[in-house]
Write a structure and sequence with these properties.
About 45% of the residues lie in helices and about 10% in strands. It is built from 9 helices and 8 strands. A hairpin with a 6-residue loop joins strand 1 and strand 2.
Length: about 290
């Protein structure tokens, strides 16, 4: 992905190095266990607490980044550019529907931070908090993706951001609150199925974003799509459960199988239209 030298979003809150800095204009096995637990045991992580792997326009002014945090600023610059690209596409999509897009803030942290949805840690993985409309990410998670999950590449990393932004879109659309209400009145199995549909729609929205960012800016390079598809595959519930050595139990799935995640991402990628991303269908009219 061509990202260096491009405009970054102003909606970045950098909390690394123990400081809270707002941009204007190798994890151990414990982290893997925590991440997998957050996927396999969602009863301990209510839907509106965090949804994970997810103000006005940033204008023409790019983000600026402070030096001296002791953390590689390549991460903040990369994340800022990807977030700006999501803003560009979702502002256009919402504008076409006559609705104003409310841009989310992306919080970068290292190790641990706080959120209205509860504590955020390296092991929790990236997540979207509906309560403050912020995305939380420790760039150390990208080490997990590459070294432990086999999902490497900058566009695989961009896919993670696009997925979490897609949850923000679902929140603005009212889908997340509807799913939460449905979950509270349903059996555990049905609640999990609804969550899977929510996650697969976020994958599809990520594919829509990929289609449109390439058409509008042409920033994708050879292999980028493959990186995103591989990332979607590697974080499927069945693949993660199999990798952990446990029994693959579809009743506990909360994000979808690897095949489902790849297929829905590709469906959005192929169409470039959010109307192709109805993962709920007539069986979920109660939502």
């Amino acid at each position: 992905m061509q990202w260096r030298g491009r405009r970054g979003s102003s909606n970045i809150e950098d909390r690394r190095g123990g400081k809270r800095r707002v941009a204007g204009g190798g994890l151990g096995i414990g982290a893997i266990i925590l991440f997998i637990a957050s996927i396999f045991f969602p009863q301990y992580v209510p839907l509106l607490q965090m949804v994970g792997v997810g103000g006005g326009s940033g204008g023409s002014g790019g983000a600026t980044y402070s030096e001296g945090s002791g953390v590689d600023d390549d991460h903040s610059q990369f994340l800022g550019v990807v977030l700006a690209d999501t803003e560009s596409i979702w502002n256009d999509i919402f504008q076409q529907s006559g609705v104003r897009y409310q841009e989310p803030t992306l919080v970068i942290f290292d190790g641990r931070t706080t959120s209205p949805c509860g504590p955020a840690s390296t092991g929790s993985g990236p997540f979207y908090c509906p309560a403050d409309k912020k995305i939380y990410i420790d760039p150390g998670f990208y080490d997990v993706m590459e070294r432990q999950l086999g999902a490497s590449g900058d566009f695989a990393q961009a896919y993670v951001v696009a997925h979490e932004v897609a949850h923000h879109v679902q929140n603005l659309e009212g889908t997340i609150p509807k799913v939460d209400r449905y979950r509270r009145s349903s059996s555990k199995v049905e609640a999990n199925r609804a969550t899977v549909r929510l996650e697969l729609q976020a994958d599809c929205y990520s594919g829509v974003w990929t289609n449109r960012i390439q058409k509008s800016k042409g920033v994708l390079e050879d292999g980028d799509i493959k990186e995103a598809l591989n990332a979607a595959f590697q974080i499927g519930d069945d693949t993660l459960q199999g990798r952990s050595g446990g029994h693959v139990n579809p009743a506990t799935f909360t994000h979808g199988t690897s095949e489902q995640r790849v297929n829905w991402f590709y469906k959005g990628l192929r169409s470039g239209n959010i109307s192709s991303c109805d993962t709920f269908g007539p069986n979920y009219n109660a939502l």
